[in-house]
Each structure stands twice: as structure tokens, then as C-alpha cells.
Amino acid sequence: MAHAAMVIFSKKADRVDGLESSAIQMAAAFAVALAFLVVTGGLPFAVPAEAWPWVWVLGLVNTGAGCYLYFSSFAGLAAQTVAVLGYVEPLSAVVCGLVFLGEPITAQQAVGGALIVGGAAAGTLATRRVNDPDSGGDA
């Protein structure tokens, strides 16, 4: 639900560029995470002092750059395409874990991945069929 709202609002905010949109999204996520930490009493684990620079690198560089690229691409893509790519994102994380970290894929992950790829293919074919006047769609 929150992802759908994010896609819709980002698509409607045509005067907000990718950098502003990324900053807004990250600030909102920070506020929600901070509120959760205040309500629950803090982190359930300790972060060593020497790890904090890496936490900041992950948060600012990895997440910040990824969000910037993601949100700045919204203007050039249809909402359906953005939604499909949003579903492919977790699949890419599983594949990267397999390739780069040697993590095994469970049967549930394989079935989920097949459903994601099948759904993305079905969505793409349905969109093409509707938008192609020669295919007999309802365009």
C-alpha cells in the first residue's frame, strides 16, 4: 500500500525532480524509523562506534544514490512500468545474494521469483496488447 502510494504521488509530482523526491522519501523514512525507535525504546542491538561510518555510507551513498536513480526515472516511465520494476527489485536482491555472496535460493524464493517474472511478463504483454490498436485491444 505504501509503495503504491509512493509511486502514484511521485508520478503526480511532476514539478519535483529526482533529487528532491529522493530527499523527501528519505526524510519521511527517517522520521518513521525514528518514531518507531522512540516508541519501542531504541535499537534492539548495539552498533559499535567503528561501524557508524559504514552505516552512514550505506545510508547516504547506497540508499541515497539508489533512491535518486529510482525516483528520477519516474518521469520517463509509465506508472505500470514503475510498478513492475518495483516487484522485480526484491528478485534482483535474491539473485545478487546468490551470485555475489553465494547464498542459496530456497524453494519458496524460486517460486516467488518465478511468480514475479511471470507477473511482470503478463503485465507487459497486457499493456502492449491494450496499447497496440492492431492487436484488437480496447485502446
How would the blueprint of this fold be written?
Layout: H1 2-12, H2 18-40, H3 52-72, H4 79-101, H5 107-131
What would you note in describing this structure?
With about 140 residues, the chain is mainly α. It has two domains: about 1-75, no CATH class; about 80-139, no CATH class. Helices cover about 75% and strands about 0% of the residues. The protein has five helices and no strands. The longest helix is centred in the C-terminal third of the chain and has 25 residues, at about 105-130.
Annotation, overall tally of beta strands: 0
Cα-based radius of gyration, to the nearest Å = 19 Å
Count of individual helical segments: 5
Low-confidence parts: none
H-E order:
HHHHH
Please state the structural category: mainly alpha
Largest sheet: none
Task: Supply the key terms.
single chain; 139 residues; mainly alpha; 5 helices; 74% helix; 0% strand; globular
